[in-house]
Specification:
mainly alpha; 122 residues; flat
Length: 122
Amino acid sequence: MFKFFPFLHWFEELKNLSTLKKDIVAGLSVSFILVPQSMAYAQLAGLPIEVGLYTAFIPVIIAALFGSCPQMSTGPVTIVSLMTATALAPIAVSGSDGYIAYASLLAFATGCVYLIIGSLRL
């Protein structure tokens, strides 16, 4: 059970009030950096800023719950934003509904590839 749900190990650690306080401070620190960063990277990719907020928090939560490495960094990065804008520019107009749909499809396909790679332990 712990193999597929690594976050179950946390319950023992969170009983310690000192650990809980440190986790809250760490979460607030990350959010103060992540919110403006994700909004800027969304604009860089040609997407609305609210899309950047969704793409900032959802992958971080999933990685925190199911990731096997607590030190792994997950979140928006410059190169992915630039690659998304470059890949989608010939297909749709930046900021349009089609552009957002293509960006969502690209993110979904990338997630599927990562899921396959992780499942095969590559």
